[in-house]
């Protein structure tokens, strides 16, 4: 039974195919998270979706270039995203908190210590930290590859019992997902390089990461003693069975 977990939810779980926020699915995820909290599980949510939420609010003039466009979209979208989380968690009498971090904050030093202390204090107060990369300032090579990498760092910082990574696929398949003859791989050993051959090049629409990054982060995190559960965030009640039944995705450990 996991007592402390990190749950990372990707853009494709939080947004619809047209890029707008999928409020219905976000609401279902918050319901499940509230259920875990009610069972006494301490958790941190890593949420993408800021750029997606921004896209819903504004069409940004392309003349500014890609970096400025991403900054503007994430800056306005992060507010929209947190507004939604605040309302949904309040419906369960829960408080949530916004935590924005950059890659540099995870280097040993004052920022690392401050972040660690902040997480401890929030969790002590039964608040749900909702973490995203600070996309407004993380615009160069100092960026995380994606939020999977951020989630792995937070998992190690807090030495949690498990890292759950939810995307729009069930997990790692031994062939193209959805094609007959492809099977879900239930368990992968942290050091098993052979599974990398199964990774499809094609990424699902909006998110920055992909299965290759997920596996790389999962292997690193599992080697640090934290099992990683890959699963489909659009599957009903996927989180409810956490630690109880067989996980319906891929476990890397
Ligand atoms: N931080 C980005 C956002 O909130 C997403 C990064 C990713 O796709 O992992 O939109």
Main sheet? 8 strands, mixed
End-to-end separation in angstroms reads 15 Å
Give the % helix: 25-40%
CATH superfamily: Acetylglutamate kinase-like
What is the 3D form?
globular
CATH topology: Carbamate kinase
Mean of residue pLDDT values: 91
Portion in strands: 15-25%
Query: Biggest sheet, strands in spatial order?
Result: 3-4-2-1-5-7-8-6
Number of domain units:
1
Secondary structure layout:
Layout: E1 4-9, H1 11-14, H2 23-38, E2 42-47, H3 50-57, H4 66-90, E3 96-101, H5 110-124, E4 128-133, H6 147-158, E5 162-167, E6 187-188, H7 211-223, E7 228-232, E8 250-252
Parallel strand pairs: 1-2, 1-5, 2-4, 3-4, 5-7, 6-8
Antiparallel strand pairs: 7-8
Helix pairs in contact: 2-4, 3-4, 6-7
Bound molecules: glutamic acid (GLU).
Question: Please, could you describe this protein's structure?
Answer:
- The protein has a single domain, classed as Carbamate kinase (3-Layer(aba) Sandwich).
- It has seven helices and eight strands.
- The chain has helices at 11-14, 23-38, 50-57, 66-90, 110-124, 147-158, 211-223, and strands at 4-9, 42-47, 96-101, 128-133, 162-167, 187-188, 228-232, 250-252.
- Bound molecules: glutamic acid.
- The site of glutamic acid has 15 residues, from helix 3 and strand 4.
- Belongs to the glutamate 5-kinase family.
């Amino acid at each position: 039974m996991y007592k402390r977990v990190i749950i990372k939810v990707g853009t494709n779980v939080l947004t619809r195919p047209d890029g707008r926020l999928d409020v219905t699915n976000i609401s279902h995820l918050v319901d499940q998270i509230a259920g875990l909290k009610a069972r006494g599980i301490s958790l941190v949510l890593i949420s993408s979706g800021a750029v997606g939420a921004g896209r819903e609010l504004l069409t940004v003039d392309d003349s500014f270039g890609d970096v400025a466009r991403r900054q503007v979209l994430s800056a306005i979208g992060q507010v929209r995203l947190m507004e939604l989380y605040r309302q949904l968690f309040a419906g369960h009498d829960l408080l949530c908190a916004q935590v924005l971090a950059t890659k540099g904050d995870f280097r040993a030093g004052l920022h690392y210590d401050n972040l660690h202390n902040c997480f401890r204090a929030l969790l002590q107060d039964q608040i749900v930290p909702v973490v995203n990369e600070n996309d407004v300032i993380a615009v160069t090579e100092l960026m995380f590859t994606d939020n999977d990498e951020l989630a792995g760092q937070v998992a190690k910082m807090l030495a949690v019992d498990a890292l759950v990574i939810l995307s729009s696929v069930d997990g790692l398949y031994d062939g193209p997902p959805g094609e007959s003859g492809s099977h879900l791989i239930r368990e992968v050993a942290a050091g098993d390089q052979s599974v990398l051959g199964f990774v499809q090049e094609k990424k699902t629409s909006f998110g920055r990461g992909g299965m290759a990054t997920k596996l790389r982060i999962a292997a690193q995190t599992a080697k640090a003693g934290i099992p990683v559960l890959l699963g489909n965030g659009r599957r009903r009640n996927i989180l409810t069975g956490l630690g109880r039944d067989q996980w319906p995705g891929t476990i890397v450990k």
